[in-house]
Amino acid sequence: MDVRIWTYLLVGATFALYIGIAIWSRAGSTKDFYVAGGGVPSVANGMATAADWMSAASFISMAGIISFAGRDGAVYLMGWTGGYVLLALLLAPYLRRFGKFTVPDFIGDRYYSKLARFVAVLCAIFVSFTYVAGQMRGVGVVFSRFLEVEVNTGVVIGMIIVLFYAVLGGMKGITYTQVAQYCVLIFAFMVPAIFLSIQMTGNPVPQIGMGGEYQDTGKTLLDTLDGLSRELGFNTYTDGQKSTLDVFCITAALMCGTAGLPHVIVRFYTVKKASAARTSALWALLFIAILYTTAPAVAVFARVNLLKTVSETSYAEVPDWFKNWENSGLIAWVDKNQDGKIQYLGDGAALAPMPDDPKFIPRFDGLGDDAARGDSGERLLLNPPTDAANELYIDRDIIVLANPEIGQLPDWVIALVAAGGLAAALSTAAGLLLVISTSVAHDLVKKTFAPNLSEKAELVLARCAAGGAVVIAGYFGVNPPGFVAQVVAFAFGLAASSFFPAIILGIFSKRTTMAGVIAGMICGIIFTASYIIYFKFVNPGGELWWGISPEGIGSIGMLVNFVVTVVVSKLTPHPPKEIRDLVDRVRLPRAAFGEEDAGPVDH
What we know:
Number of strands: 2
Strand content: under 5%
Largest sheet: 2 strands, antiparallel
Shape: globular
Order of helices and strands: HHHHHHHHHHHHHHHEEHHHHHHH
Oligomer: single chain
Distance between the termini: 61 Å
Number of helices: 22
């Protein structure tokens, strides 16, 4: 069987499994829809949290960034891993003991204000839509190659699947679907990594193989990669180009953004009590670490294979994988010197433009058999870039998906990676869409405008909101503002600059007031969003403030939020006594009040 048949079989089987689980565990009440009834076992919740957390950015794009950027790409690895530890240790148990379904619900009650809840709802929707755009883009990338459809068509297929099990099952359906999706995605990520590690270094453990001896050269794999990079004019792989301040800011934004992401936080409400939230957080960290410690190895394997396979190769002799991905519109070759060979080169300061800028995304003059071709047989581009010596343009999001093909692994492994990529993208997309629907139905309508709304009407409204959110998410998947991990990084920055200070101060400071948190959230997210929009869309390539990239500006927005919140809180009256008592009851051990750790506090 060829790759396409294997892909249909494996993807079809996993989709059938997801839909079957959604039907079996469909939500019958708002508690089922929002928090899966609050009785999910810790191990299952840990797996579901890991699947929710490891999105298309983790599975598809993170290794791609590390593969292209080398050491600079490690900020994503450090930020996302450290952020989850911060969330598990610092926030999850307290939020679970508070006992609310959503972050806006926590903010609304903690800060005794419908306006605070309304601002939090707007922030949650904004952050979630930014994040989900990256997931839908990831779905489109997978489908475009392995089902041989256009990226936009792939996004639509993903929309339909997500709509079905998110709207039908709610959090209950999503939770058990994500348990299955974790098993699929981790198996799909590890199998090719182990194959490649054995193939290149003779070691079956990818994390060790990455630093082992490369069998083709007798040198270590990283030394070989550094040598290949220098020969072709690229920056040395193990050296970074970003400033220390920018690396710090990006890492901090990703860490604190993790702790403020509403779709991850709500996971800790699906277990029975706060101690179970801690246990499930530890399980999730273990499950996440399996992929995150393997991603750098996958990046190194892919980069070595790519440089050895493509550079200075005649287009007529390139492997099948190159032309397969070329057909998807995610890779392009421009024969600038008309020698018929692919020049994959860096040239010092004028490095090849990468497709995070939309004008450099390959736009082919015709698709498939109708494609216009040059004298060397290359697919002609409508607007070919001309300002760099490099002739090869690769979408970073294809590296993990193309890796098994580049390494000439069996067809079933290639198809398995496609199924894993879809599992990663769809699991997170479903969680985000549920956050959006919950924010609209529960926090915005029921808690703010229609407190007498019946449970049945609220459930219908939540499902309608999820349906509308899918359509909007699909639009952003078709028209993304960058590659998957970059779009997701923007979402983390927005979460860090809006939710993180409000949650931290809400738990650990009795002095923080309603006016302070509202002012802080508005200032933080407006500052961060404005910076991202200006330097990504209005003036791309402009001189950055303090050298901080848009991916890292959320750290500064977070500081703005903290400062504004604290200052305004100092200038306004203390919160009511019942709110100060509530903070004590959430933060201090229940034994201090003669109570057992049995669930949310009574307030």
